[in-house]
Design goal:
The structure is a single chain. By secondary structure, the protein is of the alpha+beta class. The protein has five helices and three strands, in the order ααβααββα. Helices cover 46% and strands 13% of the residues. It has a three-stranded antiparallel β-sheet with strand order 1-3-2. Helix 2 crosses helix 4. The N and C termini lie far apart (44 Å).
Length: 119
């Protein structure tokens, strides 16, 4: 199994785009995360996992939501996992996925309009 990329340190969190420009390193890290979510299937998978009861979803709960093969779903889950957006834990024959809420919070924080800056 490929090694998961490390999550961005919380001190590397970005201010809203409307307040401060991103550094080059911040832009690279954020673009990696946004790119992982830029596919409609991956965005739906992320949403299904995040909104699932208990905050985690079995891969068996995810595959029925798509008209795609299991290997295709697995590929999209791998992209999300390697980006640091989700984590997976094998339990018996199934893998259960959970969203990293701190990563989603970081993404939303950079996109939210700063109250002190006119929109």
């Amino acid at each position: 199994m490929p090694k998961e990329l490390p999550l961005v340190a919380t001190d590397a969190c970005c201010a809203p785009l409307t307040r401060d420009p991103l550094t080059a390193d911040q832009a690279v890290e954020l673009s990696r995360l946004f790119k992982a979510m830029a596919d409609p299937v991956r965005l739906r998978l992320l949403s299904l996992i995040a909104s699932h009861a208990g905050g985690e979803a079995c891969v068996c709960d995810l595959t029925d939501a798509f008209d795609l093969t299991a290997p295709t779903i697995s590929h999209h889950l791998k992209v999300l996992r390697e980006s640091g957006l989700i984590t997976g834990e094998r339990r018996g024959t199934w893998v259960y996925y959970r969203v990293h809420p701190e990563v989603l919070a970081r993404l939303s924080a950079v996109l939210i309009a700063d109250a002190g800056v006119p929109a």
